[in-house]
Design brief:
The protein has 188 residues and is mainly alpha-helical. It has one domain (4-187): Four Helix Bundle (Hemerythrin (Met), subunit A). Helix 3 (66-89) packs antiparallel against helix 4, helix 3 packs parallel to helix 5 and helix 5 (128-146) runs antiparallel to helix 6. It has helices spanning 4-27, 35-60, 66-89, 94-119, 128-146, 156-187. The longest helix is centred in the last third of the chain and has 32 residues, at 156-187.
Length: 188
């Protein structure tokens, strides 16, 4: 039971790779009957659910491990970035491009801040707002993936959710930047 959270993180990474490949195939015009888009949507939804479940199980069964501490945030980044790049490859359109770029930029920038901070002995704990940011990102990306699959979904809703996710993403990125600057300044 103690290995289950890590197994879920690994499953999330493999589901993300499969989702990404399906979206690339959609973009290449190889999804004539819509099956790959359905697969991409459900792979994403299941992978996103494992993000919640692995952390909950690790805390519930006191199964927090160093390996899990490494795997979980990597799995999160791969899931979000894989969905964003996959949606771009599948032809998500210009309305998606700017918020998608902002999300990608922040994800890589915060990863770099964490690396620099770690090298100086500084830990950047995940904030409550950053957890909400991840939840909004996952809902927004699921809406984008499901936009063509759910006819009743208002056309602007997925893009509005992606913009909300982008605003929260940039906001938390700025918070991490200031947190890193403060922490590094205290160490010098």
């Amino acid at each position: 039971m103690k290995a289950l959270p890590n197994i879920l993180s690994v499953i999330r990474i493999f589901l993300t790779l499969a989702m990404f490949a399906a979206l690339v195939a959609v973009g290449a015009g190889r999804d004539l009957e819509g099956g790959l888009m359905h697969f991409a949507f459900w792979a994403f939804v299941i992978a996103a659910a494992t993000d919640f479940l692995d952390g909950w199980l690790a805390r519930r069964f006191d199964a927090v491990t160093v390996w899990g501490t490494i795997l979980d945030p990597i799995g999160d980044k791969i899931l979000v970035c894989g969905a964003v790049v996959g949606l771009m490859a599948s032809g998500a359109g210009p309305a998606f491009a700017l918020p998608a770029g902002l999300i990608l930029f922040r994800e890589f920038a915060v990863s770099a801040l964490r690396e620099v901070g770690a090298a100086k002995g500084l830990k950047l704990p995940v904030t409550g707002l950053a957890k909400w940011k991840t939840a909004v990102q996952l809902v927004a990306l699921a809406a984008m993936l499901g936009a063509g699959l759910v006819p009743a979904l208002p056309a602007l809703l997925p893009i509005a959710l992606v913009w909300l996710a982008a605003v929260l993403t940039v906001w938390t990125g700025v918070e991490y930047l200031f947190q890193t600057r403060r922490g590094l300044a205290e160490r010098t």
